[in-house]
Write a structure and sequence with these properties.
Distance between the termini: 39 Å
Largest sheet: 10 strands, mixed
Mean pLDDT: 96
Structural class: alpha+beta
Bound molecules: S-adenosylmethionine
Shape: globular
Number of helices: 14
Number of strands: 22
Helix content: 25-40%
Radius of gyration: 23 Å
Low-confidence stretches: none
């Protein structure tokens, strides 16, 4: 670990520095957050394979013991009932205070820790645009949102500037969980620690300010913007907040309204007691959070709803053979059918990876259902056939094997402890495995 980084931390933390140094040698804090749209808190704790201790940062989050392994393959994870997230990372969305029905923009969203937390709070109402600039990371974001069963989400892959121009003035809330130098993610012997430099900190700060300026444009009058990083550097935290306030007289800094973590550091005339810092001494790896409110309107870009067409009878019948589809909107894009409870939006030249629930793919007039359809917590009560499997049957299903279970004909949801993990096709004798190949794991 670079001496210069340690010297800066010593100057920053003073008396607390020895404790910080000792914590750099400790294993990382790990955490899980349950998805309340799929499971209740008590049931989650009952089904989780070990004891869970609550975190101060989010009521749905727990610390995960260092020795718990392979939790990513557990049916609680594969059913979308939980997300693994470093505990202090859940703080920013709590501060954003998302309400059902809000329109929310998550501008730097992959892999999706915060987007999945926002979508859960929206509870199938309102809208989340989850954007990620990097193509590969955007795919991971999409698969996490799919696994956790969210539908009122649009996943985009765009430059913040282009996206925010297209949706100027649309959002009640926006989150910039910015790309940063990641000091809070470094442990003493990590490779990342050796790549640390002041030049990189400066480059990150410049980029952060640009992204925040774009995000502010996308907000409605009175809308809220939360800025977060997982780094300790003042240049990327208090200094960026101060520069943003100097550049935008339509933004005010507001109190984060929480009592976890600690105040920010004094910086020029910044009201540092309004921003929040979390250090390992506060029981998380490290986060910085600031909250702004917009106090004036930006000219709003027009919201264009796509016109809605009823789904062709043949496709509707094929879907209705699987579940009773609730009222809503359908779109056929290329060979895929999507469903949303509210009208589809036309995002013009923005690259949209997913809008709504992907119901299935059309192959020669036949609808091949998609994993997303079955993972949707909104559609959970609508399925005609749900086959409950044992732990052992789940392992065989996860490995991609056929299940010797009769009494099911047609596409059938597969559930473990009432949590849908995927689907299969029954012929009254066996259930043919339809678990996505990329998710299969040998036991
Ligand atoms: N919010 C995410 C979560 O909770 O899972 C983590 C986001 S991560 C800290 C920052 C993201 O910003 C990365 O996925 C990165 O690809 C993206 N990014 C990098 N450069 C960017 C830029 N110039 N504009 C917007 N996003 C960028």
């Amino acid at each position: 670990m670079k001496e210069e980084f340690l010297a800066r931390m010593e100057a920053m933390l003073q008396d607390e520095y020895p404790l910080f140094l000792a914590m750099l040698d400790q294993p990382r804090f790990r955490g899980v957050r349950f998805n309340s749209l799929k499971i209740g808190k008590e049931r989650f704790q009952q089904l989780f394979p070990c004891e869970l201790k609550p975190t101060p940062f989010c009521p749905n989050a727990f610390y995960l013991d260092h020795d718990v392994k392979q939790i990513g393959n557990h049916p609680l994870h594969m059913s979308g009932a939980m997300y693994m997230q470093e505990p202090s990372a859940s703080s920013a969305v709590e501060i954003l205070d998302v309400k059902e029905g809000d329109w929310v923009l998550d501008l730097c969203a992959a892999p999706g820790g915060k987007s999945t937390q926002i979508a859960e709070k929206l509870a199938h109402q309102g809208l989340l645009i989850a954007n990620e600039i990097d193509a590969q990371r955007a795919q991971v974001l999409m698969s996490n949102l799919e696994r956790m069963g969210f539908g009122e989400v649009i996943v985009t892959q765009a430059q913040p500037k282009v996206l925010c121009k297209m949706c100027r003035g649309w959002f009640d809330k926006a989150l910039v969980d910015a790309p940063c130098s990641g000091e809070g993610m470094m442990k003493k012997h990590d490779e990342a620690a050796f790549g640390w430099s002041v030049e990189n900190i400066r480059a990150c700060a410049k980029r952060q300010l640009e992204i925040l300026m774009d995000a502010a444009d996308a907000l409605k009058d009175q809308g809220f913007l939360v800025y977060s990083t997982c780094t300790y550097a003042e240049e990327e935290n208090e200094a960026v907040v101060s520069q943003l306030l100097a550049k935008r007289n339509d933004l005010i800094l507001v109190d984060c309204g929480v009592n976890f973590g600690r105040y920010g550091f004094p910086y020029d005339d910044l009201e540092s007691d309004k921003v929040r810092r979390i250090f390992p001494m506060d029981q998380g790896e490290g986060h910085f959070i600031a909250k702004f409110q917009k106090t004036a309107a930006t000219p709003t870009a027009r919201i264009i709803e796509k016109s809605s067409h009823p789904l062709a009878k043949g496709y509707r019948e094929q879907l209705e053979a699987i579940l009773t589809m609730p009222e809503g909107h359908y779109e056929i894009l290329h060979d895929k059918i999507y469903f949303r409870t509210t009208p589809f939006l036309d995002l013009k030249n923005i690259r949209v990876l997913r809008q709504g629930i992907l119901c299935g793919t059309i192959q020669k007039q036949r609808l091949e259902p998609h994993h997303h359809l079955f993972m949707s917590s909104y559609l959970y009560p609508c399925f005609h056939r749900i086959c409950e499997v044992t732990d052992d049957e789940w392992r065989h299903y996860q490995a991609g094997e056929e299940l010797a279970i009769g009494a099911y004909f047609g596409y059938t949801a597969i559930a473990w402890n009432s949590l849908i993990v995927g689907f299969a096709k029954g012929n009254n004798k066996v259930l043919k495995n339809k678990y996505p190949k990329g998710l299969r794991r040998k036991y």
